[in-house]
Backbone:
């Protein structure tokens, strides 16, 4: 019985951990940029060690491939920094809810990058998401509106690297993509910290609790989650995984209620908008699965 459902259980453990990353944006008492710097550093080292143990080689075919992967790594860095900035300006619930709009950004980005037909159905779903965001932000103050802007930018960056990775993974193994992107993200954030005069030993001045949470974030929520997700996708299929990931904002909001007490900060209209957005995202996943065009047959030369 357990063997039959163990990959489903593993999938939801991964999603739960991803949901918990939003909570860590509030729990860890460091700036958003510093949190992301430590996250990519720890993830880069942990993933590198894992690939050595698993004997997975990292070989790039050209400088162009390295440039493409590095560019996406910069987008990853921007995504995580804006995500944690959104959370620190407002609530974990708002940050993760904004991030759940990523798949709707993918709907209009994929036709541009992957050259697939534009979907008016997905465009209509995007309008429904805007309605949900209206309910969420109806009673926001200036700080919350700034957090909303950061959160929606984070979702756009997440969609960009998802679409670009979808194209890159056709030619490059997924583990190589992730490792190079982590290295690139670490380098660009380090350069930024150097520019503002903060790349010094003060980066390592923190509470022991913050250090332990950063290890959890970098090793389990990033490196382990990545490697485990690859195996889960092989066993359950991309559709099951992508649809289940839509539960991430639900997990985060529930955790935020019990751990951070955010139910005292949020009004009923926030939860109305949340339900609308989550239902639209799930509906989008179902539509993309059941109405997708039949695959075309390739002709070998």
Residues:
């Amino acid at each position: 019985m357990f063997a039959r459902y163990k990959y489903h259980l593993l999938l939801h453990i991964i999603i739960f951990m991803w949901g918990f990353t939003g909570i860590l944006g509030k729990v860890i008492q460091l700036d958003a940029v510093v949190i992301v710097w430590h996250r990519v550093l720890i993830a880069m080292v942990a993933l590198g060690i894992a690939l050595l143990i698993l004997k997975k080689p990292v070989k790039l075919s050209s400088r162009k491939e390295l440039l493409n992967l590095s560019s996406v790594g910069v987008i990853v860095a921007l995504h995580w920094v804006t995500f944690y900035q959104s959370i620190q300006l407002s609530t974990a619930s708002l940050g993760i809810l904004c991030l759940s709009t990523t798949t709707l950004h993918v709907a209009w980005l994929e036709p541009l990058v992957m050259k697939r037909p534009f979907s008016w159905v997905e465009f209509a779903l995007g309008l429904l998401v805007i309605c949900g965001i209206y309910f969420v932000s109806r009673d926001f103050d200036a700080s919350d509106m700034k957090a909303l802007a950061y959160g929606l930018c984070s979702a756009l960056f997440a969609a960009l690297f998802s679409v670009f990775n979808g194209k890159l993974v056709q030619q490059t193994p997924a583990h190589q993509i992730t490792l190079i992107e982590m290295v690139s993200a670490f380098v660009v954030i380090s350069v930024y910290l150097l520019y503002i005069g903060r790349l010094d030993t003060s980066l390592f001045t923190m509470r022991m609790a913050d250090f332990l949470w950063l290890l959890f974030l970098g090793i389990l929520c990033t490196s382990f989650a990545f490697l485990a997700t690859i195996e889960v996708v092989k066993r359950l299929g991309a559709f099951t995984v992508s649809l289940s990931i839509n539960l991430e904002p639900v997990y985060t909001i529930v955790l935020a209620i019990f751990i951070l007490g955010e139910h005292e900060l949020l009004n009923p209209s926030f939860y109305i908008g949340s339900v609308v957005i989550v239902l639209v995202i799930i509906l989008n996943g179902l539509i993309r699965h059941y109405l997708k065009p039949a695959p075309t047959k390739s002709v070998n030369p």
